[in-house]
Design brief:
heterodimer, A: 231 residues, 2 helices, elongated, B: 299 residues, Alpha-Beta Plaits, seven-stranded antiparallel beta sheet, 8 helices
């Protein structure tokens, strides 16, 4: 993207002012590149964006950064607090450092890349988002995942993919344990091509042949009469 | 909600930066806990054989001079009583049990909020800036300190229910979360001789650690035992005479960030409290893992 870079310093400007400015962008204006300085862990930076703009945030961000993102590209040069890119619709959110719990929670589309580690519940209730984690993820990641792909280049914590519906999971390292109804599946040609394409889109250098694939055994879809006594 | 903060300087010498930095961290956590605030600061040693008692009276205009006269007749005072409105710190040659018994008989309106060679505890209802201002935190030097901003979910909003809770000698605890088995645990610990002043869940966690340390366990081992015996959600920060520790429950819903430089270790519920510290931009920053004890000890 070309054009001048507009700098906003959050040590002198409020998050609300920044977000309102981004929400009210004139579609014809040449305000497509933004740089945010001194986030200092503030919450809700660059949430609810709907324009195809580029934003770079220099420093660590608090909760829900780039939440509900649509169309925009947001890069965080630092760590991110709880719920980065929660409910992302489209576009791309990249965290250069680590992400705290519930990264990309309930994301419906778009791409979330975390170069470092993601904590617990990464991709919880994901509904179509693609997530690529360069490091490891914490426990209960992809819990109740319904659609989309979670790629973990490092290790996964306990109960990976618990109660998963249809999302796909690829892990290159160790999986501490699989959650209820999550099973290993064959890395067939179509899945391998999907994984390789996603790694390339994310700009993450990893050998797709090292990954194992996990998904739903689909045993929780329907009530089983054998379990009637448990209710 | 609730916000917790901790700052531990690695050097032995007391730093005049401790008070102002902790007050700044607490300010950042104000939105997470507007009900009450408190802090424990580890500062000057009491003279050999002496202990510092952090006391709290029901009114800010309490007659601390008269109190000190009476107390001094019962126990040797090793320095002048320092009044801070409703709170006061007195250094005396007396063990915890004897002071407690004397207060119960002669001044039942005065509570002990902290007791030890180095710890001083201050807490009150209100936002952190009001509470740290009331007790002059910004003017205080020390080696390490813990702080808390409370959004009550579990028991009443009073000064007594505020954190930190300091049930043992130089031991204190701040907590973000809630415990579900604290009533039964409190009954059991009372039988072991641990004293409780409130119905608060966090006080039980503090009493539990006091009991485990009294059994001879290290702080590390006591916290590992807590993982089996405490049921509920928690991120704990614990202070001891020369140490500092963090523990999160295995589910780890309650947030926590740790940061370390050559000079200090800091813990906070959110990074924005750490961002206020000198050198934060270059600190090593990470999220403590679930069910894992992190501790630092000054040699």
């Amino acid at each position: 993207m070309t054009g001048p870079v507009i700098e906003i310093d959050l040590s002198t400007s409020s998050v609300r002012d920044l977000n309102q400015r981004l929400h009210r962008l004139d579609p014809g204006a040449d305000e497509r590149r933004w740089r945010v300085l001194n986030p200092n862990g503030a919450h809700a930076i660059a949430v609810g964006l709907t324009a195809p703009i580029d934003i770079e945030i220099i420093g660590h961000v608090g909760y829900y950064c780039a939440g509900m993102n649509a169309a925009a590209t947001v890069a965080i040069a630092g760590h991110a607090g709880t719920g980065v890119a929660e409910n992302i619709m489209s576009g791309c959110v990249r965290v250069r450092g680590n992400a705290a719990q519930s990264a990309a929670a309930s994301g419906r589309g778009g791409l979330v890349v975390i170069d470092g580690d993601a904590s617990a519940r990464c991709g919880i209730s994901m509904k179509g988002v693609d997530i690529v984690v360069g490091g490891s993820v914490g426990h209960m990641s992809a819990f109740m995942g319904q659609a989309g792909t979670l790629v973990v280049c490092g290790d996964a914590g306990p109960d990976l993919g618990d109660s998963i519906y249809e999302a796909e999971i690829f892990v290159a390292g160790e999986v501490a344990s699989l959650g209820s109804d999550c099973v290993e599946k064959a890395l067939d040609e179509a899945a391998a091509a999907h994984l390789a394409g996603l790694l390339e889109r994310a700009g993450v250098a990893a050998d797709s042949a090292r990954f194992r694939r996990y998904g739903s055994a689909r045993r929780l879809y329907n009530f089983r009469v054998d379990h009637a006594a448990e209710y | 909600m609730c916000g917790i903060v901790g700052l531990f300087f690695k050097a032995r010498a007391a730093s005049p930066l401790l008070g102002p930095l902790l007050a700044g961290m607490l300010h950042e956590m104000g939105e997470r806990g507007p009900d009450s605030s408190g802090f424990a600061i580890y500062c000057d040693n009491a003279p050999p054989g002496g202990f510092k008692a952090s006391l709290r009276a029901p009114a800010a205009d309490y007659d601390w001079d008269g109190f000190a006269g009476k107390l001094g007749a019962a126990f040797p005072l090793l320095g002048p009583l320092r009044p801070y409105g409703s709170h006061a710190v007195v250094t005396l040659a007396a063990v915890h049990e004897d002071l407690h018994a004397w207060l119960a008989e002669h001044r039942p309106e005065v509570a002990i909020f902290g007791f030890g060679e180095r710890i001083e505890v201050f807490k009150d209802v209100g936002r952190p800036d009001a509470v740290t201002g009331r007790f002059g935190l910004r003017q205080r030097a020390g080696t390490h300190a813990l702080g808390h901003t409370r959004m009550a979910t579990e028991s009443a909003v009073t000064t007594e229910h505020s954190h930190p809770f300091a049930t043992g000698i130089d031991l204190c605890l701040v907590h973000n979360g809630s415990l579900s088995n604290h009533n039964r645990l409190r009954r059991n610990l009372r039988r072991e001789g641990i004293r409780f002043a409130t119905d608060n869940d966090t006080e039980v966690a503090s009493g539990y650690l006091t009991w485990r340390l009294r059994q001879g366990l290290s702080l590390q081992a006591a916290l590992e035992a807590a993982l089996s015996d405490l049921d509920g959600f928690y991120t704990f920060a614990v202070g001891t005479r020369d140490g500092f520790a963090i523990l999160r429950d295995p589910i780890a819903c309650k947030p926590a960030v740790l940061a370390e430089t050559d000079e200090w270790v800091a813990m906070a519920t959110e990074y924005r409290a750490i961002a206020t510290l000198p050198g934060a931009a270059d600190a090593e920053i990470w999220e403590p893992r679930p069910a894992t004890v992190y501790s630092w000890q000054r040699q």
